[in-house]
Amino acid sequence: MQPNSGAMAPTKSAEMQFPPDLAPDLTFTHVVSISVAGKEYAKKDRYWNTVMFDVVARAAEKLKSKEKVMQLIPVNYVDGVGPKERGGFRYIEEGGFSVQGQDSNAAWKTIFHIAKALGWKVETIFRWEDNAKSANPGKVGRMTYEG
Q1: Structural domains counted in the chain
Q2: pLDDT category, 11, cuts 50, 70, 90?
Q3: Contact between 128 and 134 (Cβ < 8 Å)
């Protein structure tokens, strides 16, 4: 497999490796596997937003300061319970605030940003849908951050 950009290098025959801070366009992808700080996410939880919400909650548990977590997260949030029906906010009980759901690219950036700030290892494998609008239709990608 020949890479089509300088940001990736071939790994296993069916995977394209990407640096986590220069992620490819993740639109039309689904998560095949992901682990963050030693937590492997079950198949039912392998969605970009589901992982992002969990990583924010785990950061809130670790930092034990609503203000520190709110300063850390690069996405929209509101103190307390957010407007689910009007903005896709999910309440993060551990922090006492709500975070707005994101597209796959912004969710990944949030996951990576928090992991990097807290020194957490992240490993993810994802697959692009076989869709002409996806960046790499039918291909598999991998991003790893050692923390």
Answers
A1: 1
A2: very low
A3: yes
